[in-house]
Fold this protein.
Amino acid sequence: MSLFPSASEEATVETALGVCSLTYSPLNVDEILKFVQDDGAGAIALFIGTTRNSFQGKTVTRLEYQAYSKLAIKTMADIIHEAVANIEHSEDENPPQVSPSIIRTAVHHRLGSVSVGEPSIVIAVSSPHRRESFVACEFILESVKRKAQIWKREYYEGEPDHVAEWKVNK
């Protein structure tokens, strides 16, 4: 038992714009997609980031994610708000609609140990047109990696756990 409580706690925030979640449970892509579905959506962009089996010639056996959850979940929600506020309607709309350019968003990130092949982050964005979904999905991914208080540790085959490396999300 640790003398210090872990800051990596499960957390979920749902707003009118979407949902953000940090969880130790496997990510359910079907449920995440269902959350962003809407009859007004002409597109849903989906990104699934998985644990790959190698990094710079080393065999990766698993990743471990930790977060300062109270701050990370707020940062993730702020990123969703920023994406919705900054993504403009497609230029092919004639005349431009007054409907939102983004309908719903979902960002789910794993905590704890994530095996090779398992999703560690899932982002889904629905919008009336495809361009907005793609742009928002990439914006959210890059912003979460750059801003959210989430850290990963890589474990390599043939190396003891105590030498596993903490990596900055890039």
Q: What stands out?
A: The mean pLDDT is 90.
